[in-house]
């Protein structure tokens, strides 16, 4: 019998969180001036896009970091 995780894919996925405040100010999205975090989320518990308040290294303030597409 196969493992349920192997049949339906992985439950935990790696996501990238990007600062929403710096994202609006920046013209070039690929620049290194945007604060980004890499984390994991559980697809069953959090099916929608993940948003967390994290410290923005560029602004030096706690701002909302939202999940972006890879």
UniProtKB/TrEMBL annotation:
<dbReference type="InterPro" id="IPR038584">
    <property type="entry name" value="Ribosomal_bL33_sf"/>
</dbReference>
<keyword id="KW-0934">Plastid</keyword>
<dbReference type="InterPro" id="IPR011332">
    <property type="entry name" value="Ribosomal_zn-bd"/>
</dbReference>
<dbReference type="GO" id="GO:0006412">
    <property type="term" value="P:translation"/>
</dbReference>
<keyword id="KW-0150">Chloroplast</keyword>
<protein>
    <recommendedName>
        <fullName>Large ribosomal subunit protein bL33c</fullName>
    </recommendedName>
</protein>
<keyword id="KW-0689">Ribosomal protein</keyword>
<dbReference type="GO" id="GO:0009507">
    <property type="term" value="C:chloroplast"/>
</dbReference>
<keyword id="KW-0687">Ribonucleoprotein</keyword>
<dbReference type="InterPro" id="IPR001705">
    <property type="entry name" value="Ribosomal_bL33"/>
</dbReference>
<dbReference type="Pfam" id="PF00471">
    <property type="entry name" value="Ribosomal_L33"/>
</dbReference>
<comment type="similarity">
    <text>Belongs to the bacterial ribosomal protein bL33 family.</text>
</comment>
<dbReference type="GO" id="GO:0005840">
    <property type="term" value="C:ribosome"/>
</dbReference>
<dbReference type="GO" id="GO:0003735">
    <property type="term" value="F:structural constituent of ribosome"/>
</dbReference>
<dbReference type="GO" id="GO:1990904">
    <property type="term" value="C:ribonucleoprotein complex"/>
</dbReference>
């Amino acid at each position: 019998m196969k493992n349920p995780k192997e049949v339906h894919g992985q439950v935990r996925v790696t996501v990238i969180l990007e600062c929403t405040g710096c994202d609006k100010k920046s013209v070039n999205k690929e620049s290194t001036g945007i604060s980004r975090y890499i984390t994991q989320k559980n697809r069953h518990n959090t099916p929608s896009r993940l948003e967390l308040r994290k410290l923005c290294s560029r602004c030096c303030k706690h701002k909302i970091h939202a999940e972006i597409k890879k």
